[in-house]
């Protein structure tokens, strides 16, 4: 990835994902893996966790944005991440406001 910027990966619900996709954030890498996951009602916790781990291990991703309520579903995976890159940022969803007291990334120093 020398000489090229890093991507932002997104794990979000459908209601709040559309604006990110319209802004051009969606991309496939050379192996046709997307840098996003849209979490639907039938998306399993294992799918979310596996996607999160996949994003952590990609060398082209610098930031992972995840809806806070989705992060709560896989908190054990987020808790084990201690590297600064990719940075993991919990963000609000359309229906669920952000609660700083629940943000696991704020408690890692």
Automatic annotation (TrEMBL):
Gene Ontology molecular function terms on file? proton-transporting ATPase activity, rotational mechanism
Please indicate if the UniProt record lists tRNA-binding as a keyword: no
Question: What sections of the sequence does the record tag as coiled-coil?
Answer: none
Q: Which Gene3D superfamilies match?
A: ATPase, V1 complex, subunit F
Q: Does the keyword Transport apply?
A: yes
The family assignment reads: Belongs to the V-ATPase F subunit family.
Name-wise, this protein is V-ATPase 14 kDa subunit
Q: Give the organism the record lists.
A: Vombatus ursinus (Common wombat)
């Amino acid at each position: 990835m020398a000489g090229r910027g890093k991507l932002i990966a997104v794990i979000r619900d459908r209601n709040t994902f559309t604006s990110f996709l319209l802004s051009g954030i969606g991309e496939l890498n050379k192996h046709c893996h997307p840098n996003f996951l849209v979490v639907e009602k039938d998306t399993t916790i294992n799918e979310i966790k596996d996607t999160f781990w996949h994003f952590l291990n990609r060398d082209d991703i610098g930031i992972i944005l995840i809806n806070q309520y989705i992060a709560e579903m896989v908190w054990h995976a987020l808790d084990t991440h201690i590297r600064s890159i990719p940075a993991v940022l919990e963000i609000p969803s359309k229906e669920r406001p952000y609660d700083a007291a629940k943000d696991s990334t704020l408690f890692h120093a």
